[in-house]
Amino acid sequence: MSASAWVADDLGTGYEQLTIPLGTDPDGEGTIEATLVRRTPPAKTEAAVIYVHGFSDYFFQTELADFFADRGFAFYALDLRKCGRSRREGQTGHFVSDLSLYDKELDQALAIVREETGGKPIVLSGHSTGGLVLSLWLDRLNKKPGGSAGAGVVGLILNSPWFDLQGKAWMRSVGTKAIAGVAKVKPTTPINLPATDAYGTSLHVSAHGEWDFNTSFKPLNGFPVTFGWLTAIRRGHAQLHKGLDVGVPSLVLRSSKTRFARTWSEAVDEADAVLDVKQIARWAGCLGNALTSLPIENARHDVFISKDVPRKAAFAAVDTWLRSTSLIPS
């Protein structure tokens, strides 16, 4: 794809976006596309990063991009189909019937970044659902000739990856089966879940937070969870739990505690208000290869947009890991 196709991104100076056409949606919602965002690369590029967001999210975390650029990484982020910049009118936000369908945009994004950076080593970074998506994709990639390393991938950084379904135990057994049954006939129908804006309002500058993001792309109360999408997630969880081999060293970061709530309180600012951190710790070992799994004291669900102290601790952990794995000089 020609570099002339890059256009200015709404993040402002230093950021551009590239549309990746994906053709007709296999899930029947028209023509789909993904969006690759890039930050102006450092003068001397040693490696590259591709970041993938989570559910009800998109890339806006410029501090994360700056962190990697300061260490010689060209930074790219991918808004998946029907997410963020890539969602089009009439499409169900974030809906996909199988997580492997994302392979199409992930493969293309990887090819673009490798071409633009002259084949520099690539580290993948995923948040929440994006962490699950990347882990499954890397496992499939690692099964191909040459494996993950042959594809240019050298590391995986996961920020509160969604490795299991939070909540009561019956939701992970009979509840999952019931949801899958409904998904066969009503895949895009929303599941009736209790409303919550605790996490969203903890982040946004219009409420209790310090981050300015597009609430059409990342609603404060999130997008509806549909039967078909959650069924795809649960199939992904089942694959992960059987054990993967991503083929590269991994760093898994999470908060030190979980605090589920429907409305904001100060406690929400110092915990994961979305996922069960014990589940993240439990299943991290399923990635295969070398693994570093660390809790970040008082971090939010997205550890990189936590309050100042845990945010700095999260970035320091990544810096240490990059040096320990020789992805940047010690």
Instruction: Estimate the global geometry from the Cα principal axes.
Output: globular
* CATH architecture term: 3-Layer(aba) Sandwich
Order of neighbouring strands in the sheet with most strands: 1-2-3-5-4-6-7-8-9
Supply the number of helical segments.
9
Number of strands: 9
> What is CATH's topology name?
Rossmann fold
**Unreliable residue runs:** none
Kindly provide the radius of gyration, computed on alpha-carbon positions and rounded to a whole number of angstroms. 19 Å
Q: For the record, give the distance between the C-alpha atoms at the N and C termini, rounded to a whole number.
A: 36 Å
Please trace the helix and strand order, writing H or E for each element: EEEEHEHEHHEHHHEHEH
CATH superfamily: Alpha/Beta hydrolase fold, catalytic domain
Q: What helical percentage do the residues reach?
A: 25-40%
Q: State the CATH class.
A: Alpha Beta
DSSP strand content: 15-25%
Structurally, the number of domains stands at 1
Task: Tell me about the largest β-sheet.
Answer: 9 strands, mixed
Structural class: alpha/beta
Mean pLDDT: 96
